[in-house]
Specification:
By secondary structure, the chain is mainly β. Helix content is 12%, strand content 42%. The protein has one domain. Strands 1, 2, 3, 4, 5, 6 and 7 form a 7-stranded mixed sheet that branches. A hairpin with a 5-residue loop joins strand 3 and strand 4. The radius of gyration is 15 Å and the shape is globular.
């Protein structure tokens, strides 16, 4: 039900909104146990602390996930914003993802609240 409502909101926004400037289309905060992103080309992990998967051990680092749409409403990438133990905030853009998995917490279980946004590609210029 939530997924169909989300798709309806995105469809109506794209149909009547006319995406010509950067904007946030949808925002939701979910309590997650894990988040995994499926991409063909992973960024280099030899640089240290470049994460593309946030399992139960490191989900606490993840702060925000931006799902980026182009002017036609197609997914062009995913922007991950996280802060690893060294304290430096990092942002990693994963172009053309094949998909992602958000594993929500079970009742009475501990998780991390993560902000999930759907944004237009021009919104990336205003990264915060």
């Amino acid at each position: 039900m939530k997924k169909s409502l989300f798709l309806l909101v995105v469809f109506l926004t794209l149909s009547f909104g006319g995406i010509s400037r950067g904007e946030v289309l949808y925002v939701e905060e979910k309590e997650l146990y894990a988040a995994y992103f499926l991409v063909d080309k992973r960024p280099p992990t030899t640089l240290g602390y470049v994460f593309t998967d946030f399992g139960p051990g490191n989900i606490n680092f993840l702060e925000r996930v931006d799902i980026v749409l182009d002017k036609e409403g197609r997914v062009t990438g995913v922007l991950l914003v996280y802060t690893p133990p060294d304290g430096f905030r990092r942002q990693v853009f994963l172009p053309d993802p094949r998909g992602w998995v958000f594993q929500e917490v079970r009742p009475q279980a501990k998780g991390k609240k993560v902000l999930i946004r759907t944004v237009t590609s021009t919104e990336l210029g205003k990264i915060r």
